[in-house]
Amino acid sequence: MTVSIRTASPADVADLVAWNVAMAWETEHKRLDPERLRRGVEAVLEHPRRGFYLIAEVDGTAAGGLLVTYEWSDWRCGDFWWIQSVYVVPAARRSGVFRALHAAVAERARDAGAVGLRLYVETENARAQATYEGLGMQRCHYFMCEASLVEPAA
């Protein structure tokens, strides 16, 4: 099995939307609005300042992906790269797909001068937490707080 990583293109929108819908349901039992999600994915591809998607291919077939966004840190005078919207198709899980995606993000972040990587993980998702810890990511001392400014999708 060969895993290769590439930057997403508009041809990947359907996969990215489907994977986000599946991930939201699997991890939070949330139903996302596919049309709103499609617009959100396309907005990243159309405006690279928002971030970028990476696609993992296994033997030439798309098997997973993730989104990277940026957060400026005045304390560190540099960007944190946030890993988001991680999804690996069930048949490719536990086979190094996320490890390859993570390595590609870390390499690109180092090359770009980023100060660190961050990600969110569901508090109940022990498997994902173990995966991230195995890649050297550590739980930080911050809690996340949120205030929505838009109505949730129905």
From TrEMBL:
- Sequence intervals crossing the membrane: none
Instruction: Decide whether keyword Acyltransferase is in the record.
Output: yes
Domain N-acetyltransferase spans what residues?
3-154
Q: Which UniProt keywords apply?
A: Acyltransferase, Transferase
- An MF annotation (GO) of this entry: acyltransferase activity, transferring groups other than amino-acyl groups
* A Pfam family hit: Acetyltransf_1
Protein name from the UniProt record: GNAT family N-acetyltransferase
Species the sequence originates in: Rhodanobacter lindaniclasticus
